[in-house]
Amino acid sequence: MLAFLTKRLAGGVLTLFMIATLCFFIIRFSPGSPFTSEKKLPPEVLRNLERKYGYDRPLGVQYLLAMKGYLTGNLGWSIRYEREAEELLFPSFSTSLKLGGLAFAFSILFGVGIGILAAARQNRLPDYLSMSFALVGICIPNFLLGPILVMLFGLVLQWLPVAGWPEDWSWGELSKLLLPTLSLSLVHLAYVSRLTRAGMLDVLHRDYIRTARAKGLGEGAVVLKHALKNGITPVLSYAGPMAAYVFTGSVVVEKIFNIPGMGQHFVDAALVRDQTLFMGAVLIYSTLVIVFNVLVDLGYSMLDPRVRLT
Fold this sequence. Notes:
This protein is an all-alpha fold. 74% of the residues lie in helices and 1% in strands.
């Protein structure tokens, strides 16, 4: 276990280094600069700005300084906001984590439940209905689903608020989370339900399941106690990338529902070419993907004793 973690962490650090390097040079070689605007700056003002933020230095020096900052936990100075990038990203990242946590839990709980129901009632009405729902969820992207939910529940029915972040624990405030959570989680819920159904159908036809039924166990005990543990292993493979996606929040969902998450800064940084803020967001996203992939491997070894961590 320790050797596995050491190996994966070393690989993760190397991956982050490669991502940071590629992103740094791609951004630097892209057309334009952070000081480009509709009103052209005088050359003297432009030179002063470049000198202030270190853009007048050789590209290799800029790269080494940026890497040194990342290693020491300093993401750099945001040109647009005139603040340290971590002061902007970390508070907004906590908001994205809360929204992502709700979406992740919603996707797993309801997706696994729907998948189990579909597998237990294969080729019957519950199976057809649940898989039709999953197909619709996969086909509708969140940038389309979000506005549909806003129009339906916010404007037509006027049941739920359509924007903002809750300020307290009252129902009126917490109801602001329902639409963005559903928008962010529906496609993942659909994938989880289909993967759960496929995994459960494979397990339910194995010999040890027939033996459990022959011993007189009820169908509920057979499904939940004997089949579920092995049947959800496909879901575990998908859970890592899914967690990285929903825990960092969706840029589109946060924009649609005006949620003060990291996605807002990610979009703004790309639009105004705030390279420091953009790089900080990319590194946070990349770190989460690596961490969750390692957790998935650990979870596999816990669910399936045949898997050996090497």
